[in-house]
Amino acid sequence: MASIPNEFIDELIHRIDIYDVVSSRVSLKKAGKDYSGLCPFHNENTPSFTVSQQKQFFHCFGCGKNGSAIGFLMEYEGLDFVDAVQELAQMAGLEVPISQGHQQKGHKNLFAITEKAARIFRHQLKGQDQVINYIKNRGVSAATAQTFQIGYALDQWDGLMKRFDFSEHGQLAETGLTTSNDRGKVYDKFRNRLMFPIHDRRARVIAFGGRAIEAGQKPKYLNSPETPLFHKSHELYAYHLARKHSDESHVLVVEGYMDVVALFEHGIKNAVATLGTATSPHHIKNLFKVWDEVVFCFDGDNAGRQAAEKALFTALPLYLDHKTIRFLFLPQGHDPDSYVSEFGHDAFKAQAAQATPLSEFLIQVISKGIDTDTLDGRAKLFHQAQEPINQLPKGAFKKLMVQRIEDLTQQTIQTQVKPSNKTTQRIDPSPVRKIISLLVNAPEIHQQLPEGLKFSPFGNKGVALIDKIVEICRRNPQISSAALIESFRDDAAYEHLVPLARQYDHLSDEEKTHEFNDLVRHMQKRHRQLQINTLREKQMQHGLTQEEKQQLVHLLTENMN
After folding, report:
1. How far from the centroid of its chain's Cα atoms is residue 262's Cα?
2. Mean pLDDT for the chain?
3. Which of 21-30, 133-142, 294-303 tops mean pLDDT?
4. Domain 431-560 has CATH 1.10.860.10
């Protein structure tokens, strides 16, 4: 597992201005000492999303999302922690000092292998007149082929292998670029195929799709197998290009990479494709992070409708009131490639504009073959609706769907309340909570504490967190609020720290210091009183040693001051 030193995270957050990160993606306006705008993570008409340059974090009062520039990129771009750090480090001109475990180092080497293979495939396309003519006949221009980095795998058993050093052959196998037979003979997986590199969200090559270019060549489409870099249920073909080249509020999800290429060629640049697998929850979550509307586009045959139904039921638990899903079924015998090639850009856009909303498609699916004009039919529809309705998350859409089903069946649906699996550490709403709030609001305030003071012996809930915060601040006296909060990313308290950090924004530095000192004195006095009560109880029952008597006198004197 890769790890990044906390010291580097602190330095990175110090170098990066969260305003620059967020404002390039969200429209912000000055609001006092902070900035505000419409939250990119939920639908709203009145701005509740704020960015604090002083503390270097964002917070939405509507949906509750918050964090540093790292957290923002993770939410907005759908990146994992390491990728978000690397992207910000690139902006800051820093090299990420990842402690390389075997797996992470291996991943870095595997990316080098896939990138090199992509370059080789592109180079091999040159001079292949028959293949180039095939591409042109499919209506793909040289510019589009270059954008998608389309290449060619030679019709040779070792056309790719011989371009790599023998020491790299193991990594070729690990990336799925070579395979072997029962006798252990190793050879290229892709031969005599048009090659389509598959990229991750950071535009790194992680896999390949190969299309047959000769009649009778089987299989017609061949994708890389699952590898350490490539998990097909997580990835979407051309995701990185759709984000880069289109500012549309919706994304088209099609079934093949040639569909994506053809649409792009005709000026429709907001399309992605699943990669030989059904639409997964990961696909939908990643799409919703970037686009407000997802339009699934399927062929107009039985297979297309079956795929659409799978996507429908996958989407139900993930459906959000501020997002939209629609289903586009092309005329019988057409896929996106053939349709846009025959009828053009405007005709395809017109088809997409008429796509069926998820609500309507759901009714179509659950009422298929049912006569809702009869009592029996309405009863059957009522029964069919129970499970999908209860799959929907609580919200306005679910209420409206329930109302629609009730109108159709003249029955009342009792929706289930799903228990929450989320367990979080609650911080005691007390002086402990207030001290934590002040420390994350103004980390330098820890300098007010006496050297060596520990809160853990006080016994209150949450005091261990205070000690942990103070320890971090003492190691790095110049730490910012955002960097301090990032130190707790893997802690159960993490999600509470940003909201807590804002509670004392209304106070001046002097007022914060005064409040902090009062709270610490209160905690110390309360702890002393507990010790006094314990010693007095012992005195009444068993008597005290000479040392305990001196301790009691000392505590009483301290509490009088």
Report:
1. 28
2. 87
3. 133-142
4. yes
Report field, pTM of the whole predicted structure over 0.70: no
How would you write 462-509 as a 3-class SS string? CHHHHHHHHHHHHHCCCCCHHHHHHCCCCCCCHHHHHHHHCCCCCCCH
For residue 263, the Cα-to-chain-centroid distance in whole angstroms is 27
Is residue 272 within 8 Å of 251, Cβ to Cβ? yes
Q: What values do phi and psi take at 60, rounded to 5?
A: -110, 120
Rounded Cα gap, residues 346 and 361, in angstroms: 24
Strand duo 57-60 + 66-67: pairing: antiparallel
Q: Are strands 205-212 and 193-199 parallel, antiparallel or unpaired?
A: antiparallel
For the cut 60, the answer to whether the pLDDT of residue 144 exceeds it is yes
Say if domain 6-92 classifies as CATH 1.10.150.120. no
Tell me which DSSP letter residue 418 carries: P
Task: Report the run of H or E that residue 31 belongs to, with start and end.
Answer: strand 29-31
Burial profile 205-232: b = 16 or more Cβ within 10 angstroms, e = fewer:
bbbbbbbebeeeeeeeebbbeebebbeb
367-409, what's its fold? Pheromone ER-1 (1.20.50)
Give the pair of three-digit tokens for residue 71. 């957290």
Cα angle for residues 399, 401, 406 (degrees, 5° grid): 95
CA atoms of 258 and 160, how far apart (whole Å): 23
Long-range contacts of 302-309 (CB under 8 A, 24+ apart): 304/329, 304/330, 305/329, 307/255, 307/278, 307/279, 308/361, 309/365
Residue 477, both tokens:
């006296």
- If one counts every other C-beta atom within 10 angstroms of the C-beta of residue 99, the result is 10
User: What pLDDT is attached to residue 102?
Assistant: 39
CB 77 within 8 Å of CB 71 = no
CA atoms within 13 A on the CB side of 55: 32
Place of tokens 């289903």: 327
Name the residue among 110, 255, 256 with its Cα closest to residue 177. 110
Q: Measured between alpha carbons, how far is 264 from 251 in angstroms, rounded to an integer?
A: 12
List beta partners, residue 29. 36
Give the single-character DSSP code of 107: H
Say whether 342 sits in a helix, a strand or coil.
Answer: helix
Q: What average pLDDT score do residues 448-463 get?
A: 76
Concatenate the DSSP letters of all residues of 181-243 into one string. -TT--EEES--SEEEEEEE-TTS-EEEEEEEE-STT-SSSEEE----SS--TTT--BTHHHHH
Length of the chain: 561
Q: Where are the domains of the chain?
A: 6-92, 100-230, 367-409, 431-560
Cβ atoms 209, 191 nearer than 8 A: no
Architecture of domain 100-230 in this structure: Alpha-Beta Complex (3.90)
